[in-house]
């Protein structure tokens, strides 16, 4: 694994452990299940896996409520299983990123248990407490219906802050002991060999210490200037270790001008998810404007990180339909920047309908979290190769056709398309490291050229459901890949994406 800056050239594949592969038949995915399936991720052509949280947790937010940062939840396995997973991944040439959840812990975490015990407990300052008859300010919690981000705790009659569920009290990053303890958590896992972290709600670890109310154009409960030195300090912890470890932030800021500073200074996050695509209408012009703007913002430094899905969002194939989803896939895998894929995206999975009475997530994110179908369901194994037991969420109703084992045999399947795209990206330095320049193409066409060491690759994406002209620059180019088995020749077919070497 000698390559430098692997996190720029490679694709990062997100695994949601509960739903990836279950090795012990309890219906919930686990670490051994993941380890057994790592070859699949290698064969897909990804460079790394990012695991959503595997730590001990009461699972009020399915692991994003951590009760012990330095142990694996028994549902997922043991620390030894984590070591095996990391070792096997490295054997296969894959890196491993863990989710790191710095903004909050579980209310069951011993730190919070101590903190809530009394007003003069030494850990009182580790969380955000205030007295008074009403919530200290108007901040609202992130899930659902605009509930206050404050809960009054019985033990001491004071309010504590929770940006998410009441079961997820916010740590107080203005307390240096918290920062030091969280750095030690990072070191614990870095020593065990992990290659980096995806940092959950990274922009929230800087908040206004005065607890000012949010104002139009200025939020006081996230993206506060103190966030930047804190992320820089996290990076320095990673740099204590060799091997090109990486810090990826979940920075959910849809204004790219606010997002860019997280990655442009060169001493903070290596990557920050850009979620803007998830909120755009299907418009070539809007996608182009978005990419051009972020390119402009990161011209002097900073590397984009594009994504279309994760475990919090309706799947692309549901939002767009597969015909457009594959155009979107071609886009994120050919832009300048690191693409993130969410498990099952490569199978063209759609959201799974979950009957209302079976919804288990507080924010109703069950449909995109349904298990990966590995094999067609059968009478003997109704769990579609995901589990021999009863899956915690329903398997996809079309698992018969969508199963990975079925798609692997079909050269026209979504899986085959993704494999071809990733293989092309791996074989084409221009697509990994090349410069980016968008073209003035026909309406509905987003086209750009990536250039590296005098080799030029043109990508043309037709957002329209009818044919559109190819950009003139593509003339005479050599076809590298199309979304369509038969390309439209001199024109782009309806919903066609095409990659051409110039
Ligand atoms: C992030 C995670 C999400 C979680 C939340 C609270 O947004 O992606 O799943 O619920 O943080 O930790």
Q: Structural class of the helix and strand makeup?
A: alpha/beta
Number of domains: 3
The level-1 CATH class of the largest domain: Alpha Beta
What would the CATH topology of the largest domain be? TIM Barrel
Total number of helices = 16
Largest beta sheet: what is the strand line-up?
11-10-9-5-2-1-13-12
Largest sheet: 8 strands, parallel
Question: What integer value in Å does the Rg equal?
Answer: 23 Å
Give the terminus-to-terminus CA distance. 31 Å
Helix content: 25-40%
Shape: globular
Topology, number of strands: 20
CATH superfamily of the largest domain: Glycosidases
Mean pLDDT: 97
The bound ligands are: alpha-D-glucopyranose
**Which stretches of 5+ consecutive residues score pLDDT under 50?**
none
Describe this structure in words.
It is built from 16 helices and 20 strands. The protein is 27% helix and 16% strand. It has three domains: 6-104 and 174-422, Glycosidases (TIM Barrel), CATH 3.20.20; 105-170, Oligo-1,6-glucosidase, Domain 2 (Oligo-1,6-glucosidase, domain 2, Alpha-Beta Complex); 435-501, Sandwich (Immunoglobulin-like), CATH 2.60.40.1180. An eight-stranded parallel β-sheet has the order 11-10-9-5-2-1-13-12. The longest helix has 16 residues, at 176-191. It has 502 residues and is of the alpha/beta class. The protein has helices at 6-9, 31-36, 38-44, 79-91, 110-117, 176-191, 227-239, 256-259, 261-264, 284-297, 316-320, 322-334, 399-402, 404-407, 414-427, 429-433; strands at residues 12-15, 48-51, 55-56, 68-72, 95-100, 129-130, 150-152, 159-161, 196-199, 246-249, 271-272, 305-307, 338-342, 435-438, 445-452, 455-462, 468-469, 478-482, 491-492, 497-501. The model has no long low-confidence stretch (mean pLDDT 97). Helix 12 runs parallel beside helix 15 (414-427).
